[in-house]
Prior knowledge:
Helices cover 67% and strands 3% of the residues of chain A. Chain A contains 14 helices and 6 strands. Chain A has helices at residues 6-11, 29-38, 40-55, 68-93, 101-118, 123-148, 152-171, 204-222, 224-234, 236-241, 246-272, 283-293, 305-324, 329-349; strands spanning 58-59, 62-63, 176-177, 197-198, 202-203, 274-275. In chain A, the strands form 3 sheets. Chain A has a two-stranded antiparallel sheet with strand order 1-2. In chain A, strands 3-6 form a two-stranded antiparallel sheet. Chain A has a two-stranded antiparallel sheet with strand order 4-5. In chain A, a hairpin with a 2-residue loop joins strand 1 (58-59) and strand 2 (62-63). In chain A, helix 5 (101-118) crosses helix 11. Chain A is globular and about 65 Å long. Chain B has helices at 2-20, 56-70, 86-99, 111-123, 148-163, 180-193, 211-224, 236-248, 269-274, 288-299, 322-328; strands spanning 44-50, 75-81, 103-106, 128-131, 142-146, 168-174, 199-206, 230-233, 256-261, 280-283, 309-312, 316-317. In chain B, strand 8 (230-233), helix 8 and strand 9 (256-261) form a beta-alpha-beta unit. Chains A and B meet through helix 4, helix 6, strand 4, helix 8 and helix 9 of A and helix 1, strand 2, helix 3 and helix 4 of B. Chain B: This is Ribose transport system substrate-binding protein. Chain B: Residues 46-299 form the Periplasmic binding protein domain.
Amino acid sequence: MNSPNPTTVAASPPETPPRRGAIRLPKDRHAIVDNFFRFQSLFGLVAVFVIAIAVSPSRNGENVFLSSGNLANIVRAVSEIGIIAVGMTFVILIGGIDLSVGAVLGLAAVGSATLMVDSGLGIVPTVLIVLFIGTAFGATQGAIVARLGIQSFIVTLAGLQAARGIARMWSGGLGIPIAYGDGPQEAPEAFSLLSGSINGVLPVPALIFLAIGVGALLVLRSTAFARHVYAIGGNEKAARLSGVPVRRVRVTVFAISGLLAALAGIIHAGQLNQGSPNDGAGYELDAIAAVVIGGTSLAGGSGSMGGTIAGALLLGILNNILALNNIDANVQLVVKGLVIVAAAALQRLRPRIA
Amino acid sequence: MRYTRRAITILTLTTLALTGCSVEKDGGDGGTDASAQCGSGKEFLIGMSQANNAEPYRQVMNDDVSTAAKAVSGFKVVVSDAAQDNSKQVADVENFLSQGINLLIISPNEAKPLTAVVKKAYDKGIPVIVLDRKVEGDAYTAFIGGDNVAIGKAAGEYYAKTLLPQGGKVVEISGLPGSTPAAERAQGFREGIASNPKIEIVATQTAEWLREKGQSVMDAMLKAQPDIDAVYAHNDPMAEGAYLAAKAAGKESAIKFTGIDALPVPSGGIKAVEQGRLQATFQYATGGREAIDLAKKILVDCSKDVPKSTTLGTTQITKDNAAQVYTELGGKQ
Lengths: 354, 333
């Protein structure tokens, strides 16, 4: 009789857990606050963009930051990390992590250079083989995670070492320069388009990043696969019991991450005219940073692809504006560290919906 | 299963569609306001793109550039750190171009990946001075660098005539395998000791330029080679590491140690020579001062005729001249 009213609790409908898809209209204060936190990286991106304009040096009366050349540089510089981060988002959403992406990028860069220069393959077979290698590498890691139940941190840490080792064996430890032309030991001229731009404005790597980002946004918004990803990240046991093919989704997610890391590696080789086994060292951390700034929880189950894309761009703008203002390189590192912590702290403050 | 396939198919197809599509190649953005006119009494912004600040040698190079530039009125230097990442260095140079630098000094991380962006700067009319490591082709204004073969040879001649005139057993601790300085410092040394057939290189091991590896490699060699007379290390940190190993074995006074680089910093080789741990070290100049001298010729004196390639000599540093050279090179006490 005096016990707290149990019926009220039972009566309140359970909140549909992970939110994605269309923006909910803010019905009350909670919803407004919630939406702020959901799109924190977008707000952050806009804020950083505005600040960058404000503090940009000017040259001949022109805002250096806003010059089309500079904006193009930013998106070009950020595109490789951005593409990797897209794959990383899927992995983190299921509560995993992929530390192998930087090394897979190096492996793919070496593969692109070797296949075209030494083996004389054309662009299409080279790209197909390299993407296959990346996907297979990722899928293998996913299979080990899913079948043996080893934490992805460990599996992909091992994968990082293995991919570097394979890349070094394949290349003999040295970078393989890519020369262009029709002769033997030369890559097809068209491959150098990866360092070009469309109409001299939009860099090709940025275009690829844009397309991959939009593609992933659609995948995450409108497929059953995406619902499975969120479900696994939210509560794996519940997901399994409700019929989600947990293992298969795991393997797929790591395969996507490997595929996109390999794609970034192909772009890397094309941009730098070289495939070096040491390429991409530390890129996994930049990609994780982009995902975290994008508001995706490292615990899995909540986050968005739009956030990641915004997070990658935010990091790119931050790098650029610090450099344009000649901030000391060491101070730049500290600032980036602070931004990552701030983004994560905002996530902790995000109100839980009762 | 179907949905899983669909997800991966969408991404794969976008990926393939994109890599297959063709676009026009970048023809540069036709910069018009390249560098400001040369002449005295003007302000000049110089961009210094460094490959990796984490190496002491490169930090000293930055310091040399900054210090020399302070002495020239109107020069302002900004330094960027690529942290050993070719992509980052390309972006660094592009940022410099956005800022409108008047001259670029670059010490490239690797030749091939930096060639295109250096050419881009050069084609915009910005003078480019390449330091220490080269880029490909000739789309730059000047190259300044040391000659590792000559330095190795100078070290070898010192062994042949001064350090071990009676001959002896030498172990060589080499730099990172596959790196050109390691190969050239090894080759030059062999040329240098050729005049004294009684000098024998009894073992060569790599310590990858690192002090701690120098120590562990020397540990092992002391056990394998009980009567070593001298250690020729390809850089000072490895020589210092080897010295520590010998000291632990109580053999530091029986063995002579030499290094290369001679950085004028407290942890560098010159101090080690002064304090008696190394017998000698051989300077591998950074080229920082020389780069600023050249920049002054180009920007202030309007000289069109600068040498395309400058090879820096080496200075042999022993206990006799260590303190003096340290001061000359602007070393901090």
